[in-house]
Amino acid sequence: MMKKFNFCPWSLLLCASLFSFSVIYAKDISPNLALARQLNEAFVEVAEKVSPAVVVITVTQKPGSAPDDEEEDGAYDSFPREFRRYFRRPRTERSQGQGSGVIIREDGFILTNGHVLEDVETIEVRLKDGRTFKAKIRGIDPLSDVAVVKIDAKELPVAILADSTKTRVGEFAIAIGAPFNLDYSVTFGHVSAKSRSNVVEGKEGESMDQDFIQTDANINPGNSGGPLINIDGEVIGINTLIHGLRTGIGFAIPSTLAKEIADELISEGKFPRVWLGIKIQSFRDNPELSEVVKGIDDGVVVNAVLVDGPAAKSDLHAGDIVTAVDGQRVSTPQQLRSEIRHKKAGQVVLLDVFRKDKPVQIKVNPGEWPAEPATSLARVKHNPSSENASEGVGLTVHVLTREIADRFAVSMTRGVIVVAVEKNTVAARKGIKPGDIITAVDQQPVLNPKQFREALKKADLKKGIPISLVSGDTARFEILKEEEN
Predict the structure, then answer these.
(1) Total domains in the fold of the chain
(2) Which of 222, 241, 271 is the endpoint of a domain?
(3) Does one domain contain both 261 and 280?
(4) Confidence (pTM)
(5) Residue from 386, 408, 402 nearest 452 by CA
(6) Which residue from 26, 102, 149, 264 has the fewest beta carbons nearer than 10 Å?
(7) Are 366 and 343 in contact (CB under 8 A)?
(8) Residues 113 and 175 reside in one and the same domain
(9) Is the separation of the CB atoms in 59 and 120 below 8 Å?
(10) Which one of 271, 295, 319 terminates a domain?
């Protein structure tokens, strides 16, 4: 026997009203608004997912190394590191600085920037849950600005490091850090560019491992060492520096490079590096050279060879254009550095080189990276006169005799020595100075002033004249070219 159910009319009316309201409300939400809400929720989920693996790093700096009170707002943190020291005034008391970091192993290894740990005495790490720990430096790689610190903790939340080589320009980029002591600030933008080099200029930048991801996510002093994250909550970079405040131009170390270096720092305490002892530039970044050299449109130009560097013992010359390392094509300085980074000291490297309109192969034996690579130039002590002046370029040269070599405090080298440089000439603009030794003009060796003048006459100053010279401890390469009016 079936049971009889009694339905309340008021209940039916209420249900019908709620159904009608939900249908009307659903119609009021456009597909675009629904998609925006989903994206909004995605950003929230990423922040909630990754923030527990982000830490705030507070350091106590040694006396004399910290900026003064006028600089404590972090304004100079936006400057490349090699320039900041010139804006600081030493202090006698200790001071504190702050940065960020990201946990990469459950047992307390934290990835951050080397400059966050500059001149530190003590390091304190604070987690999202409020716990604080004393930390010790496990290792720092100055050339990449990657560093690892260790805290005594277990079962920590860990961030996932993405394969940054798969990161695409235009992707969402989310930064988490402690800018201006505002802990766990979250900002977002996009990946603006990849493989940025020449970001840090000057002598330090010439040897730095520069392969930055550029982003317009708003990062500021204090974000250093914190993660740059994709929409999947994976770390694609370690925020490192900014191009001025409020410019929307920030740079992060790619996570793939950071992980490679961090693994070595954790296991060995240092990242072993080799070097060739050369200064390099992209061929495409040297329009003067592209007008002089024909038959090639890509490669890495050897601007200088350090006299006491490993490459000086090989047949590699300033002015050579490297197109491949052990068969791997290279077109940028960073690509060449990346290929060399994986080599070992004593492991012969085969370079494909374009020289004097034809390809050649040169073997170079990399050496261990020295603590302080020699890059200084010898000072000029005297300026003897000479009648061997070459009009047009603004140089006066002389046969390099033992007496003149002693006057200029230079070593005997096959070439002619510069004894005078006219002001406001092409040679002066290229930084050629008395005491420099010119070894070749347009890749033709010159042993006396007559050969030097004849080589200049055969060349075209309007198109550009390649000059090889030795300046102090460095063999370098310049192009003398007449300025267009």
Answers:
(1) 3
(2) 271
(3) no
(4) 0.65
(5) 386
(6) 26
(7) yes
(8) yes
(9) yes
(10) 271
CATH code (residue 445): 2.30.42.10
Is 224 an active-site residue? yes
Same domain, residue pair 64 and 194? yes
Residue of 339, 382, 384 lying closest to 364 (CA atoms)? 339
* pLDDT at res. 26: 52
Q: Residue 383's Cα: distance from chain center in Å?
A: 39
Residue 470's pLDDT band (cuts 50, 70, 90)? confident
On whether residue 134 sits in a domain, the answer given is: yes
Other CB atoms closer than 10 Å to residue 258's CB: what's the count? Answer: 30
343 and 430 share one domain: no
Amino acid code (one letter) for 27: K
Does any domain span residue 11? no
**Alpha carbons within 13 A on the beta-carbon side of 137:** 18
Which helix (DSSP H) or strand (DSSP E) does residue 35 occupy?
A: helix 31-50
195/79 same-domain check: yes
Residue 198: Cβ-neighbour burial (10 angstroms; 0-12, 13-18, 19+): middle
Q: Would you give the DSSP letter of residue 162?
A: P
Report H helices in 325-438.
Answer: 333-341, 402-408, 426-429
Residues 6+ apart with CB under 8 A from 142: 114
Q: Which of 77, 115, 141, 144 is catalytic?
A: 115
Query: Tokens representing 182?
Result: 């505002």
Choice among 145, 209, 320, 436 that is catalytic: 145
Q: Which domain holds residue 334?
A: 274-368
Give pLDDT tens digits for 323-372. 999 999 998 888 888 888 888 888 899 999 998 778 899 999 998 887 65
Q: Among 108-112, 270-274, 297-301, 412-416, where is mean pLDDT lowest?
A: 412-416
Q: Are residues 217 and 179 in the same domain?
A: yes
* pLDDT at 483 > cutoff 80: no
The angle at the Cα of 170, spanning 165 to 174, to the nearest 5 degrees, equals 80
Residue 33 lies in a domain: no
Q: Is residue 37 part of a domain?
A: no
Highest mean pLDDT among 107-111, 411-415, 472-476: 107-111
CA R_g for the chain = 30
Q: Examine the domain organization and report whether 256 and 123 are in the same domain.
A: yes
Which candidate in 224, 282, 314, 471 is catalytic?
A: 224
In this structure, are 454 and 320 located in the same domain? no
Task: Determine the distance from the C-alpha atom of residue 80 to the mean position of all C-alpha atoms in its chain, rounded to a whole number.
Answer: 10
